[in-house]
Amino acid sequence: MMTKLIPLFIGLCLISFSCSNRTGNDKPREELNFGDLVAIDKIDHVEMSNHSGTFNLTNKQIEKIKAELSEMVYDPNISVKVGAKNIELTIDQKIYTLSSATNGGYIEVHKDIVTKNKHFIGPSDWLYFRTGEVNFDNYKNNNQ
User: Fold this and answer.
1) Sign of the C-alpha dihedral computed for residues 106, 112, 114 and 120 taken in this order
2) Considering the entire predicted model, what is its pTM?
3) 89 compared with 27, residue with greater pLDDT
């Protein structure tokens, strides 16, 4: 009887380990994007502070930054110095500030912005996302 239970036990262990690090949408935890955690579609106003000054983005620029932000990858294992560039997102009438360094490969944001998949973020108050190819200095004041 015991020899028949061993293969069953091993099979259950393998299934358990293969399912342990997945999100609801079958993405590995390490691949969570900003859009997996934040209600990107509810962003209705963006104020940018970069080398061009401080200005409000146009509707077209807001759509572009939504797409760029949604793909930024969450990195729970890093902490970086930021602050040279700031982006204020207004979501449901609340303002959230994202910060980045001058040539930053990361943005920093407080965990209060997270409205989805909260159980996948760590205990830190600050979250970091890799910016990838996004250059926030490419945003210019088109409202003049």
Assistant:
1) positive
2) 0.75
3) 89
